[in-house]
């Protein structure tokens, strides 16, 4: 289904409200990673170049509704954004009753999640937001899996509701990787728990050729295959699901499991680690990374791939002695000729740590939204734009 595009709208002199995902990490009142802010700049510039009166919306964290809490204020984001745009960005705290914005000016509205009814997608709140604009632009891909007043409700009632360029390119890249991918398709799903990624594992197992699992998820698969995992994090109650996925390899993806691993008695910088065959993990040892032979084998699969989808590291890469596996995988993805797409906060941090972010075909700004797309779910904030486009035909 189609959506209206921001690029096709005339914005000059109009009140343009743009929902972004500026939910960025902060420390001591400063932005520590501005990936999401940088990704929003072309969208903001597109509106400003046309002399629109621009109001930006975003959430930050998960504050309690109806209470202002400085910890969740977008003020640091407004300051950082102003520096990047080289023009001050006014933070508007009380904005629901109306905002004065001059054409060619951009303001940032305070955290949408301070408003009562945001999470519940309250219709009254959504109508109030819609009344503040002539054109509503949804460009918060990272929050497109939430049906909330500022991502979904407002798009029902705004005079025009369209997709911004970031949302459009995210969807295009995901379609390229999932709908009509160049074979063979290799997916890497890491992270700590099978339970949070079971749906994505299920859906990828049906659609990809090789499914590489990493982190705590891999431990559950190793245990399902009959090897001991010592003191490692793993999920006993998901062993049957892991077995089912391994058995599904006939018709679906094959799941290559590690042959060697890096183990240590504790997760720390100073822990004494060793590499061992997966059959030799001691009862008091934890698996914290894949071993060099496994990393080499995975790199070989990635070198042959036509398409690569990556979410989640394969080890505790934040600690260098457990990072070699993730580094090898990151370099293999970067070096491959495949169309590669990566998403999720930890994956992004790994790409940044190993300096290969620019060598990935597409780095998504989404975490949960990226996963839900891979699960085959409809993103509600996209569905409402499709509905509006269909209604306008
Ligand atoms: C994220 O960072 O995951 C998105 O901004 C969505 O945030 P949420 O999970 O609090 O809805
Ligand atoms: Mg999240």
Q: Could you describe the 3D structure shown?
A:
The chain is an alpha/beta fold and 393 residues long. It has a six-stranded parallel β-sheet, with helices on both faces. It is built from 13 helices and 16 strands.
How would the blueprint of this fold be written?
Elements: E1 15-19, E2 26-27, E3 30-31, H1 35-49, E4 53-57, H2 75-85, E5 90-92, E6 106-109, H3 123-130, E7 135-138, H4 149-157, E8 160-163, H5 165-178, E9 185-189, H6 194-207, E10 210-213, H7 215-224, H8 239-247, E11 260-264, E12 274-277, E13 286-290, H9 292-304, E14 307-311, H10 324-335, E15 339-342, H11 345-353, E16 362-363, H12 368-374, H13 380-391
Parallel strand pairs: 1-4, 1-7, 4-6, 5-6, 7-8, 9-10, 9-14, 14-15, 15-16
Antiparallel strand pairs: 2-3, 11-12, 11-13
Helix pairs in contact: 1-2, 3-4, 4-13, 7-8, 9-10
Bound molecules: 3-phosphoglyceric acid (3PG) and magnesium ion (MG).
Magnesium ion is lined by residues 367-368.
Key terms:
six-stranded parallel β-sheet; five-stranded parallel β-sheet; binds magnesium ion; alpha/beta; 393 residues
What is the strand arrangement across the widest sheet? Answer: 5-6-4-1-7-8
Present as ligands are:
3-phosphoglyceric acid, magnesium ion
Number of DSSP helical runs: 13
Q: Between the first and last Cα atoms, what is the distance in angstroms?
A: 12 Å
Mean pLDDT over the residues:
96
SS strand fraction = 15-25%
The number of E-state strands comes to 16
Overall 3D geometry? elongated
């Amino acid at each position: 289904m189609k959506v209206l595009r921001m690029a096709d709208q005339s914005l000059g002199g109009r009140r343009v409200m743009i929902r972004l995902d500026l939910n960025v990490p902060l420390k001591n009142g400063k932005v520590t990673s501005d990936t999401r802010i940088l990704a929003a700049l072309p969208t903001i510039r597109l509106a400003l170049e046309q002399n629109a009166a621009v109001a930006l919306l975003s959430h930050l964290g998960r504050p309690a509704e109806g209470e202002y809490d400085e910890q969740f204020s977008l003020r640091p984001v407004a300051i950082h954004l102003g520096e990047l745009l080289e023009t001050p960005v006014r933070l508007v705290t009380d904005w629901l009753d109306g905002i004065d914005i001059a054409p060619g000016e951009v303001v940032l509205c305070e955290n949408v999640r301070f408003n009562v009814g945001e999470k519940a997608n309250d219709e009254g709140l959504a109508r109030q937001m819609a009344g503040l604009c002539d054109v509503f632009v949804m460009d918060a891909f990272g929050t497109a899996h939430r049906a909330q007043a500022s991502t979904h409700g407002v798009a029902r009632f705004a005079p025009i509701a369209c997709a911004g360029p970031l949302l459009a390119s995210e969807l295009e890249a995901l379609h390229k990787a999932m709908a009509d991918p160049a074979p063979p398709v290799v997916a890497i799903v890491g992270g700590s728990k099978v339970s949070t990624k079971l749906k994505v594992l299920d859906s990828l197992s049906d659609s990809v050729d090789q499914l590489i699992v990493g982190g705590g998820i891999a431990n559950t698969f190793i245990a399902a295959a009959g090897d001991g995992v010592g003191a490692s994090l793993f999920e006993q109650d998901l062993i049957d699901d892991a077995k089912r996925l391994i058995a599904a390899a006939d018709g679906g993806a094959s799941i290559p499991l590690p042959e060697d691993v890096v183990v240590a008695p504790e997760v720390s910088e100073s822990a004494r680690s060793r590499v061992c065959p997966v059959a030799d993990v001691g009862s008091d040892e934890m698996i914290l990374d894949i071993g060099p032979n496994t990393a080499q084998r995975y790199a070989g699969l990635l070198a042959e791939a036509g398409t690569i989808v990556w979410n989640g590291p394969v080890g505790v890469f934040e600690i260098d002695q457990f990072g070699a596996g993730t580094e090898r995988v990151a370099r293999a993805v970067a070096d491959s000729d495949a169309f590669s797409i990566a998403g999720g906060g930890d994956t992004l941090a790994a790409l940044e740590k190993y300096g290969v972010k620019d060598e990935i075909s597409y780095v998504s700004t989404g975490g949960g939204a990226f996963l839900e797309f891979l699960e085959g779910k409809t993103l509600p904030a996209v569905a409402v734009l499709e509905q509006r486009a269909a209604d306008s035909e």
